[in-house]
Every structure is written in C-alpha cells, then in structure tokens.
Specification:
With 254 residues, the chain is mainly α. The chain is 70% helix and 4% strand. The strands form two sheets. It has a two-stranded antiparallel ribbon. Strands 2-3 form a two-stranded antiparallel sheet. The two termini are 14 Å apart.
Length: 254
C-alpha cells in the first residue's frame, strides 16, 4: 500500500466525518461546526481529496478550472462585474484581493463533479458545454442562499429577487462555467476520466446544502438540490453502481 492510497483513505474518512458533523450541526443546532475554521478546512480537505483521486492530467485540468473560477471571483469582488456587488466575510479566510483562497478548491470541486455528471451523456461538445453551464448554475441556485445567509460566507451589497441574491449572479455563473468547460475542451481535447471521489464529494456537498436549505427555510433552493440529487442517482444507478473495482484500482495506480 503506497502513500497515495493511504492518504486518500485517511482524507476520505475525514471528509465523511466532517460531512456528517456539518449536517448534524446545522440540522440539530443551526450552527456551523468549528465556525469558520471548519468551513474552510472542509473545502480544502474535499478539494485535496478530489485532486489526489485524479490522474496527473486531470489534476492540472481541475486546478486550472479552480484558478479560473477564483480569478472570476476576484474580478467580481473588486469591480462588481460578472456576479453583482458582494463582499466576502472572514469566515473562509485567508483572503487575497478580497477573495478566500479556498475558492480555488470550491470551484474545482464543483467543476470536477459536473464533469462526472456529463460523462453520463453522449453529447456533442457544444451541447456538453451548455449543459455543464446549466448544471453549475443549478448548483449555484442551491448553494448561494445557504452560503450567503446562515453560513455567512459573503454578503450581497444590493439585494436581489432570489432570497436577496441578484439574478445577474446566476447569469454570471452560467457564463463563467461555460468559459471553463470551453477552455477545458479547447486545451486538452480529452474526455473526462472516471473520478469516483469527485462524484462522491460533489454529491455529498449537494446533500449537505439541500438538507440545510430545507432546514433554514429556503424551500425553492432545497427543491433544486433534491432534483439534482435524484437526477444524479438516476443517471448513475446509485453511487456504488458508478464504480467498478477495476476502475478504482486503475485510478489509484496513476
């Protein structure tokens, strides 16, 4: 057993513990475990797990995707473009140029998850890029109300129509996501490989935010999350049905 396999198993166990702890804390006590440290460390852990489970080229793809999303966030925070006017709090600190560095990991986690979803479809490149953008936007419809309000990751300076979030935010997410998926296809011209942990981590985050959305009364967001989770499970035939023993061994050996 090499160091990579051991590390993946340890991080996977920690991710499961933190995920269950976060769900229990919010559902039972309406508070984040360990406050800000717990939120940022959870994202670092989840992102690191996704990267470790990926092949060498896929790691580069995911990191560049996360970096692109981070740059878009910096532009949004500094100039109010793309998403609207908002400011990050210190919950996810450390911040650079007003944006938490951990957002690199947040973006690559979601992009990695959606890439796994898109594998279930046999679509032309253009259709896949559009569907990827739409799927990312649907995830944002789920995540944003919870992250901005009870989690207090950021504050909107101008209230909007969707739980206080401006609708242009979702248009910005759609456009940035399509740019990322387009660049991914243009630069690498390869099909996404099966990364079972990217799928599990992404689905785990969907479950967390869906339960929290219903807990805090964001029912529309909760329904969106419920729909995403059900579609995922229908497409994949359940989490265990997406992974063969052979594919797991091949991915860990890279």
């Amino acid at each position: 057993m090499n160091w990579r396999k051991v590390t993946i198993r340890i991080l996977a166990a920690l991710f499961l513990v933190m995920l269950c702890g976060a769900i229990a804390s919010h559902l039972l006590w309406h508070q984040a475990p360990l406050q800000g440290f717990g939120s940022s460390s959870f994202l670092y852990l989840a992102g690191g797990l996704v990267l470790l489970a990926a092949g060498k080229q896929e790691r580069l793809q995911l990191f560049l995707a996360g970096l692109t999303g981070f740059i878009a966030e910096v532009v949004g925070v500094q100039y109010g473009w793309l998403f609207g006017h908002y400011r990050y709090t210190e919950v996810l600190a450390p911040n650079w140029l007003g944006t938490p560095i951990v957002m690199i990991f947040a973006w690559l986690i979601l992009i990695g998850y959606v890439r796994q979803i898109l594998m279930r479809f046999r679509l032309p490149t253009g259709a896949g890029i559009v569907l990827g953008g739409l799927w990312m936007t649907a995830i944002d419809l789920l995540i944003d109300p919870v992250a901005a309000h009870p989690f207090n990751f950021w504050n909107w300076l101008h209230a909007g129509a969707y739980y206080g979030i401006p609708l242009r935010n979702f248009f910005g997410w759609f456009c940035v996501s399509m740019v990322i998926f387009s660049a991914d296809k243009l630069m690498f011209r390869t099909q996404a490989l099966e990364n079972y942990l990217a799928h599990i981590v992404g689905l785990g985050i969907i479950v967390l935010y869906t339960l929290c959305a219903f807990t805090y009364g964001y029912f529309v967001a909760g329904v969106v999350g419920l729909g995403l989770g059900l579609i995922d499970l229908i497409l994949a035939g359940g989490i265990t049905g997406t992974v063969s023993l052979k594919s797991v061994k091949e991915r860990l050996a890279n």
